UniProtKB/TrEMBL annotation:
Assigned keywords, A-Z: Metal-binding, Zinc, Zinc-finger
Domain spans labelled SWIM-type: 73-105
Domain of life assignment: Bacteria
Protein name (record): SWIM-type domain-containing protein
InterPro entries given in the database record: Znf_SWIM
Length: 526
C-alpha cells in the first residue's frame, strides 16, 4: 500500500510522543533563544514550509525538504530508533529537526495545545516560587518572566517586541495575588519590571533612528501605555490606606525604583514622567524626600542633577534650582525641556525663567542638529511658547528667529502679527519668498483690514507671479488679489492712487487678451 505521512505518524505515535517529551524538557520558554527555536519550528509547520516529503514503503523513515533563509534544507527521521539527520549539520536539536517531529505530531494531536502547555509550565513554576509573599520572591519571579524582553535582539521588528510583551501580560495573570488589596501593588511591581526589561530595546528604537516611522510609533505607543498603566496603579494605591503588611514592599520600591530612572540612558522625558508619578507616592513626608534628595546629590549619574532639579521645582525652591542649573549648564536641552514643561504646567514663572535662561545660549546649536523639518517646526513653536511663558523680552525672542532662518518664518510671522507689526510681516514674507498659498487666508484678510498699505507691495508681487504663469486660471487669481487690494485702498482713502495703479497694470499687459477680459469683469477701478 502507498505510505503517507499520516500512516507514518500512526505507526510511530509512541516514539513521536517520546520526542515531544524530550523537546518539552530540553527547552525552556523563559530562555529567549530556546523559545525562538521552538517558535521557528512551529512556524515551519504552520506555514507549510515542507515543499516535498518521501516515506519509506514500510514506514520506517520520512524525509522532508524546505527552504530556510534561501537555503534548501533536507531533514530525515528514521524509526524505530528515532535517528534524526539534517543537512544544516547541527549536531544537537535544530529548528528543522524539531519541525519534522512537530510535523508528525500535528497529524494526531494539537500542536497549539502542546505549545500552550509548554509555555504554562514555566508560569506554574514561577507561581510556586511566588507563593512566598515577599519583595524578593516577587522580584525574582517577575525578573524571570520579563527576561525575554531583556534578551530581545535590538534589530528585531517592533511587531515581535509588542507580541512578546502581550505574551508576558498573559503569563503574569496567574501570578497575581488573589486578594483584591494586593493586586495594585503587584501590578506596580510588574509594570516597573516590564519597563525596565524593555528599556534598552525601546531606547534604541526611539532615539537612534533618523526619522519617526510606523515602527517607532508602535514602540512609543507601547511606552505611553505602560506609563499610563503605572500612573493608574499609583492612583489606585493612593486612594486606599496602606496595610502594614505592605511596608516591606514600599521599602523595596524605594530601593529599586531609582534604578529604573537613573540606571538607564536616553528618553529622559519618559524617565522624568515615571519619576514624577512615583515621587509623591513613595516620598510622602518631607524627611523621606530629603533622604531621596541626598541620595541624588551623591549619585554619580549625569542625570541625577536633573532629578534633583525636579525636586526643587516641586518644592518651589528657586534658589537651589538656580544653583543646579549653574552647575549642570544648559547643553542638555533634552533634559531641561521636560523640566521646563513641568514648570509651565505648574505656572512657576520664576523657575521656568531660570531654566530658559540656562538653555538660551544653546538653543541655536541644538536646533541645527535637528534633521527632520517637522520636528524643527514643532521645536521652534515649543521654545517660543516657553519663552513667552517665562516673560522673556520680545528682543530676546527675536534673537532666536534670526537663528532659525526660513524654518522659523511661520512662528515669527505669527509673532509679528500679534504685535501688529504688519509692515515687518510683509517684509518677512518677501525676504523668505513665501508663496501665496503658504499664507493663511485669514491672516492675509486680517492684515488687509488693519494696514492695507503695508501689504500692497506683497500682494502686487503675488499678482505679477500669477500673471507670469499666462493661463486664465492664474489671471483670475491675480484679479481676486487686485480686488483685495482695491478694498484695502478704498478703506484707507487712496482711491486716486489705486486707479493710477490698476490703469498702469492694465496698460502694461494690454496684449494679454484673456487677462484684459478678466480685469474688465472684475470692475477694478474705484
Amino acid at each position: 500500500m502507498h505510505m503517507t505521512v499520516e500512516r507514518v505518524s500512526y505507526l510511530h505515535e509512541r516514539k513521536i510522543n517520546e520526542f515531544m517529551n524530550t523537546i518539552r524538557h530540553s527547552f525552556r520558554p523563559d530562555i529567549h533563544t530556546e523559545a525562538l527555536l521552538i517558535r521557528k519550528a512551529i512556524s515551519i509547520v504552520r506555514r507549510g514550509a515542507f515543499s516535498s516529503t518521501w516515506c519509506a514503503r514500510d514506514g520506517s523513515a520520512l524525509e522532508a525538504s524546505l527552504i530556510d533563509e534561501g537555503q534548501e534544507i533536507d531533514v530525515k527521521i528514521a524509526f524505530p530508533d528515532g535517528e534524526l539527520k539534517c543537512s544544516c549539520d547541527e549536531v544537537e536539536w535544530c529548528a528543522h529537526k524539531i519541525a519534522i517531529v512537530f510535523f508528525l505530531f500535528a497529524r494526531f494531536q494539537s500542536l497549539t495545545e502542546w505549545q500552550h502547555d509548554w509555555q504554562r509550565r514555566e508560569v506554574e513554576q514561577m507561581a510556586l516560587s511566588i507563593s512566598e509573599r515577599t519583595p524578593k520572591a516577587w522580584n525574582s519571579a517577575l525578573y524571570r518572566l520579563t527576561k525575554p524582553l531583556r534578551e530581545l535582539d535590538h534589530g528585531e521588528s517592533p511587531n515581535v517586541f509588542v507580541h512578546e510583551s502581550s505574551l508576558i501580560d498573559q503569563k503574569v495573570i496567574p501570578l497575581s495575588p488573589f486578594e483584591y488589596e494586593w493586586k495594585p501593588i503587584f501590578e506596580l511591581f510588574y509594570r516597573m519590571h516590564l519597563i525596565d526589561a524593555a528599556w534598552d530595546y525601546v531606547h534604541i528604537q526611539l532615539e537612534e533612528s533618523n526619522h519617526f516611522t510606523y515602527r517607532q510609533w508602535q514602540v512609543q505607543t507601547w511606552l505611553n501605555e505602560q506609563i499610563s498603566k503605572l500612573r493608574s496603579q499609583v492612583q489606585a494605591l493612593g486612594k486606599n490606606p496602606r496595610p502594614f503588611e505592605t511596608d516591606a514592599f514600599y521599602a523595596a520600591l524605594k530601593t529599586d525604583f531609582p534604578g529604573l530612572v537613573l540606571g538607564h540612558k536616553g528618553l529622559f522625558q519618559a524617565r522624568l514622567e515615571i519619576y514624577s508619578i512615583m515621587w509623591d507616592f513613595l516620598y510622602r513626608d518631607q524627611a523621606s524626600k530629603e533622604r531621596e534628595l541626598a541620595s541624588l546629590r551623591d549619585h554619580d549619574s549625569v542625570d541625577a542633577p536633573f532629578f534633583a532639579a525636579f525636586f526643587y521645582l516641586t518644592q518651589g525652591d528657586e534658589e537651589s534650582l538656580r544653583i543646579v542649573a549653574e552647575k549642570a549648564g544648559g547643553e542638555l536641552l533634552d533634559h531641561w525641556l521636560p523640566l521646563a514643561d513641568k514648570a509651565a504646567e505648574m505656572e512657576e514663572e520664576e523657575a521656568l525663567s531660570i531654566i530658559m535662561n540656562t538653555i538660551f545660549p544653546h538653543i541655536g546649536s541644538y536646533f541645527q542638529s535637528i534633521r527632520n523639518s517637522n520636528e524643527g517646526y514643532h521645536f521652534i513653536r515649543k521654545i517660543d511658547g516657553l519663552l513667552e511663558e517665562a516673560a522673556f523680552t520680545e528682543a530676546r525672542r527675536e534673537e532666536l528667529f534670526m537663528v532659525y532662518g526660513a524654518a522659523g518664518v511661520d512662528t515669527f510671522g505669527d509673532f509679528l502679527i500679534e504685535r501688529r507689526r504688519f509692515a515687518e510681516w510683509a517684509a518677512l514674507m518677501h525676504r523668505f519668498n513665501v508663496p501665496y498659498d503658504g499664507i493663511d487666508p485669514d491672516t492675509l484678510k486680517f492684515v488687509l483690514a488693519n494696514d492695507s498699505a503695508a501689504v500692497m507691495p506683497l500682494l502686487h508681487t503675488y499678482a505679477m507671479r500669477f500673471i507670469a504663469e499666462k493661463n486664465r486660471h492664474s489671471y483670475r487669481r491675480a484679479v481676486r488679489l487686485f480686488k483685495n487690494m482695491k478694498a484695502g485702498a478704498k478703506k484707507s482713502g487712496k482711491a486716486d492712487f489705486w486707479n493710477r495703479y490698476i490703469d498702469t497694470v492694465r496698460e502694461q499687459f494690454r496684449r494679454l487678451r484673456a487677462l484684459s477680459e478678466e480685469m474688465e469683469k472684475g470692475n477694478l477701478n474705484l
